[in-house]
Design goal:
Layout: H1 4-28, E1 30-35, E2 40-45, E3 50-55, H2 58-62, H3 65-95
Antiparallel strand pairs: 1-2, 2-3
Length: 108
């Protein structure tokens, strides 16, 4: 009969390795956010760093500076929220069928 504590420790170590790999994968992922019907677009890394920003040239003629700034902020926030959702989904996949006590979440 195998030692239950040893098996649990091995399972925890395997999960830690998977978690590390998942973190690396998420950090390399890119997420696009947009605002103004696609007139302003932001591409952000899983590290929440803005990689690219695209502003439709028509905004420079039609919109005031304040509106453009609001659209950029909205696009960045959209990308941030998408990164967070992506991370939560991946963590849920990693946990799989693991039964965690109430209120306990990954990472520990």
């Amino acid at each position: 009969m195998k030692n239950p504590l040893g098996a649990l420790m091995q399972q925890a170590q395997e999960m830690q390795e998977k978690f590390k790999q998942l973190q690396e994968e998420l950090e390399q992922a890119e997420v696009a956010g947009e605002a103004g019907g696609g007139l302003v677009k932001v591409v952000m890394s899983g590290k929440r760093e803005v990689l690219r920003l695209s502003i439709d040239p028509s905004l420079f003629k039609e919109e005031e500076k304040e509106i453009l700034e609001d659209l950029v902020a909205a696009a960045v926030n959209d990308a941030v929220h998408k990164v967070e959702r992506m991370k939560q989904e991946k963590m849920a996949e990693l946990a799989g069928g693991m039964q965690l006590p109430g209120g306990m979440q990954l990472p520990f």
